[in-house]
Amino acid sequence: MESDAAVFISRYKILKELGDGTCGCVYKAWDKLTDEIVAVKKLKRKFYFWQEHTKLRELKALRKLNHPNIIKLKEVVRENNELFFIFEYMDCNLYEIMRDRQSPFSEEEIRNFMSQVLQGLSHMHRNGYFHRDLKPENLLVTNNFLKIADFGLAREVSSVGPYTEYVSTRWYRAPEVLLQSPSYTPAVDMWAAGVILAELFTLSPIFPGKSEMDQLCKICHILGAPDFTIFPEGTNTSRLLSIFSCEEISPANLSDIIPSASSEAIDLILQLCSWNPSRRPSADESLQHPFFHVDWVPHPLRDPLELKLSNAGAKPKLELNLQDFGPEPEDCFLGLTLAVKPSVSNLEVVHNVSQGFREDILFCSGLNDHSERSVFWPLISPDRNRIQPRVESSLSLSFSSFQRP
């Protein structure tokens, strides 16, 4: 919706300034008509004709991108040659939450934030845009609900370089941008997502460079040397050569730098923060990473020979769940559960005999409380006297659907 100056003056009351960015200042305001709090972005550039603002990439992106994890543009107002964007109001940004945090985030909290970031990026990239300035300050949060904001540097995926050299805050800038590549892709957003994921564990930037060269140095000291053949023609690789000519650099053990992160988290960070943009997973691929599909941490497995049939009601000791987190039909897929099951007392044996082939199928009602959906194929069949062996290994397949909480 677009409005003129009279509407803005009569409807919105500025309460306080929230921040001053590259493209404009952001204010907290009161919408007198709806009695709700909104955020107002006043652009620094002057607009002398009403048609001028329609060419803004930020406005084009915001109008096209409609997603729960992307900030919503409510209205556009022009007053005295100044342009105002009216947004939904969010309580704070992710940087402020990390800054004020007294203790580390749990991995579940980190999964919650990052899954929302990636869902927003997935929608953005799928609809032809990449952000180019992804950082904690541009991730707005209210009651743990996250939205990507500030599309002032957004570009169309189909746009042709060369792009502007300054893109994103230095600490979250992808190597190809630091090396002045003539063109780059939405993979720059995926690099930033990996850096943010690492920062959620440490509560401090993982690559806090003081300059572009220092930024590259810090990346090299963690990731090691890249394959120089991955960079397209026109990339300023001399910046890297000057670093490696002074010293021999080996990759660091990221688990030592982020000791609180699980192996799944470390693996996802390393994939997202790959030197090679083409090897970074997309947002959709990242959401399928095991880091987002960990339901529980299994207890250490004991020697199977120590397991006894008398362990009534024993639960699986190892389980891998692949689940769906989207409610839309096209996002759904079949859940698969693999379990190593100790001997369980409440088993029912069904014998199938077909053309001389015998198969024993065992059903257990104690797994996941889905007796009708859990089926076991024993890997060690009972002997001819129907005596169960001391240890019974089995493969469990559970089929179920899941809805987003």
From TrEMBL:
InterPro entries in the record: Kinase-like_dom_sf (IPR011009), MAPK (IPR050117), Prot_kinase_dom (IPR000719), Ser/Thr_kinase_AS (IPR008271)
Reactions catalysed: L-seryl-[protein] + ATP = O-phospho-L-seryl-[protein] + ADP + H(+); L-threonyl-[protein] + ATP = O-phospho-L-threonyl-[protein] + ADP + H(+)
Highest taxon above the source species: Eukaryota
Keyword Phosphoprotein included in the entry's annotation: yes
Keyword Kinase: yes
Any GO MF annotation of the entry: ATP binding
Entry EC number(s): 2.7.11.22
Domain Protein kinase, chain residue ranges per copy: 12-292
GO biological process: intracellular signal transduction
Keyword annotations: ATP-binding, Kinase, Nucleotide-binding, Phosphoprotein, Serine/threonine-protein kinase, Transferase
Gene Ontology CC annotations of this record: cytoplasm; nucleus
Similarity comment: Belongs to the protein kinase superfamily. CMGC Ser/Thr protein kinase family. CDC2/CDKX subfamily.
PANTHER family, per the entry: MITOGEN-ACTIVATED PROTEIN KINASE
Protein name: cyclin-dependent kinase
Species assigned in the record: Juglans regia
